[in-house]
Design goal:
The complex is a heterodimer of chains A (158) and B (274). Chain A is an all-alpha fold and 158 residues long. Chain A contains six helices and no strands. Chain B has 274 residues and is mostly helical. Chain B has 13 helices and two strands; from the N terminus they run H-H-E-E-H-H-H-H-H-H-H-H-H-H-H. Chain B has a two-stranded antiparallel sheet with strand order 1-2. Classes of the chains: A mainly alpha (158), B mainly alpha (274). Chains A and B meet through helix 1, helix 2, helix 3, helix 4 and helix 5 of A and helix 1, helix 2, helix 3, helix 4 and helix 6 of B.
Chain lengths: 158, 274
């Protein structure tokens, strides 16, 4: 699902295993902690506790991806774990929510988009360049049409 | 496997992302008022642009700092970097479960709205821009990974349909976050739609499109932030669950039929050649 902007690249790509994931996630969380400290009024300690909880949720999701072979992507498991631990009837969910509330949600997406900008490969730029302005117009209309279409239908049934 | 490790622990890459994050967050959100609404410039957008500027494929001079090694290493990190974000997203959906269940029917039916692309983009592609069969691949869906898989399966990626879907995919990857953030902030401030409906519509694309879209929306209407994020997240999960079937059984056959009606009859040419 949301393995978002991963370019469809059939060439061999570095695939981290669970242990490497665990280490890289720490690196990513540290970057996010710095970002969170810059972006919000939360103290480093508050951010650290919040991110540590999110880290554990992510690791639980990754472990589930490995041990439950139903082909669900890791991001789906992670969001599922995040949902289950914060359901109103889950014990301790209020405490968890209070801790996590010190982490700004949009700040967490900032490092991801920085990686995405760096990851654009030569081939993708070439496709964009050679197919040119026509595809650009169509792409803008595709996104606008899909977005407005969904909003209209949702508006009708709300 | 040492090479894998080597690539993933590339310090130049992570240091660059750290510096980009600090700069982006230090700038913060900027609202640019235009006509019917305002465009919100978000730190994640600056981060993407700064990433592009450091990308040696985009700015040749950046090659002095980073090479293809870093570009390749960055790709698997996109998914890892989105994980804390997704975890946080889960913690926003959980407490709002009751509201999501209440919005259930609208959430499921708004998937049908994805067909809006066929109404808007397909006629323009075929009638105004004179595109051939690549218009089918380009405009039948929002062109994320599952949609590419459908086209690859049915026509192959080297076909005109394949070129169409890949082109929109690439442009969506490059500019999708911008386009969604702009659409969301414009429509939120225009008052044409309810905020709940706009939030649900944020879930139609990839994870980062949803992030940009729901982020822009919750900045425009901060008092509804939690609800916006919850509905966008739930809609995104549903898109992946049901969107594929909608594309296979409705969107693609309808686009094919429309092409028979409107499209040119001679053999298609590849857009790359035009």
């Amino acid at each position: 699902m949301s393995n978002a902007e991963l370019p469809v690249d059939f060439e061999a790509e570095a695939k981290p295993d669970l242990a490497q994931h665990a280490v890289l996630l720490i690196a990513v969380c540290l970057i996010a902690l710095v970002g969170n400290t810059v972006a919000t009024d939360a103290t480093v300690m508050q951010g650290l506790v919040g991110l540590a909880i999110l880290y554990v949720i992510a690791i639980l999701g990754l472990v589930l991806t490995h041990i439950v072979p139903v082909g669900l992507p890791s991001v789906a498991w992670i969001s599922l774990v995040g949902i289950v631990v914060t359901l109103p009837w889950t014990p301790g969910s209020a405490w968890l929510l209070e801790k996590v509330s010190h982490v700004n949600f949009l700040t967490l997406a900032t490092p991801c988009l920085a990686y995405a900008g760096i990851a654009i490969a030569r081939r993708e730029i070439e496709i964009a360049r050679s197919s040119g302005w026509k595809l650009f117009i169509v792409a803008v209309l595709v996104m606008t049409g899909t977005y407005v279409g969904s909003a209209i239908v949702a508006d009708l049934f709300l | 496997m040492d090479r894998t490790k080597d690539i993933l622990f590339d310090w130049r890459l992570h240091l660059s992302v750290l510096v980009i994050t600090i700069i982006a967050e230090a700038i913060g959100v900027i609202a640019v008022p235009i006509g019917i609404g305002s465009i919100l410039l978000l730190p994640l957008l600056y981060a993407f642009v700064m990433g592009l500027v450091l990308n040696p494929n985009v700015v040749r001079k950046a090659g002095a700092w980073m090479g293809q090694r870093e570009v390749r290493a960055a790709s698997p990190l996109i998914v890892i970097a989105i994980m804390p974000f997704i975890a946080k997203f889960g913690t926003i959906i959980g407490p709002s479960m009751e509201k999501i269940i209440a919005a259930g029917p609208a959430l499921i039916l708004q998937e049908l709205g994805n067909l809006g692309t066929i109404l808007l983009a397909f006629p323009v592609a075929v009638l105004l821009l004179g595109m051939g069969r690549e218009a089918i691949g380009a405009s039948f869906s929002v062109a994320r990974e599952p949609n590419i898989a459908i086209i690859a399966d049915k026509y192959g990626l080297k076909s005109p349909e394949g070129a169409g879907v890949m082109g929109v995919y690439v442009i969506g990857t490059l500019f999708g976050t911008f386009i969604f953030a702009i659409l969301a902030s414009l429509l939120a401030t225009s008052g044409l739609f309810s905020i709940e409906a706009l939030a649900m519509a944020c879930g139609i694309g990839s994870g980062s499109m949803m992030a940009a879209c729901s982020g822009a929306l919750s900045h425009a209407v901060p008092e509804m932030k939690d609800q916006i994020l919850a509905l966008a997240g739930a809609s995104n999960v549903l898109t992946y669950a049901t969107g594929l079937y909608l594309c296979i059984f409705v969107a693609l056959p309808v686009t094919e039929k429309l092409y028979d009606l409107l499209g040119r009859k001679e053999p298609a040419t590849n857009i790359a050649g035009e």
